[in-house]
Amino acid sequence: MAELWKSLPSWVRNIVVPVLVLVLAWNIVTFVFGVVGALLAMLVKLLVVVGIAAAVVILVKKAAKS
């Protein structure tokens, strides 16, 4: 690996490789934020559905008593 790195021209080592590393890091960060955001969105939707279901159950029980 060291031979391959030393065989690269200096402009590749100093410009191209850091740019590729930054692009890869940016893609990984956006992927992580996307996954976390999707999980949070699903959690919020689940909480809304559970809240609506609880309200329906309470209303049905009140309606059954009267």
UniProtKB/TrEMBL annotation:
The chain crosses the membrane at residues 12-33, 39-60. InterPro entries: Uncharacterised_SCO3924 (IPR020246). It holds the Pfam family DUF5326. Keywords: Membrane, Transmembrane, Transmembrane helix. It comes from the Bacteria. This is DUF5326 family protein. It comes from Streptomyces kaniharaensis.
